[in-house]
Design a protein that fits this description.
The chain is α+β, with helices and mostly antiparallel strands. The protein contains 3 helices and 3 strands; from the N terminus they run βαββαα. Strands 1-3-2 form a 3-stranded antiparallel sheet, with helices on one face. It is globular and about 30 Å long.
Length: about 100
């Protein structure tokens, strides 16, 4: 069986930051993920900054986490809506 590689299974709990399950919000500084989530109907509830990085905080729901997983697996949203949301987010970040 040439070409097959045995990949060790990672403990899923090692991938999740400590305390993530207890948090009632999902936070990301990934602008394109944020734009995707807004296109899917999720609105961020607040922002926070860490130096020059801005994080967008969303209420953590099963639907939101499902859409994060969809984004990571290559889901699509309408390009025009996405570009509009990215522009709006950049204006939010830069105070415009």
């Amino acid at each position: 069986m040439a070409g097959l590689v045995d990949v060790p299974q990672l403990d899923k709990s090692a991938d999740v930051p400590r305390g993530f399950e207890e948090q009632s919000y999902f936070s990301t500084d990934h602008l394109y993920l944020t734009g995707f989530l807004i296109c899917c109907g999720h609105n961020f509830v607040s922002t926070s900054s860490n130096g020059s990085r801005i994080s967008f905080e969303f209420s953590k729901t099963p639907a939101l986490l499902g859409d994060v997983a969809r984004y990571m697996s290559g889901a699509l949203v309408p390009a025009r809506q996405f570009s509009f949301e990215i522009l709006r987010l950049k204006r939010t970040i830069h105070g415009g």
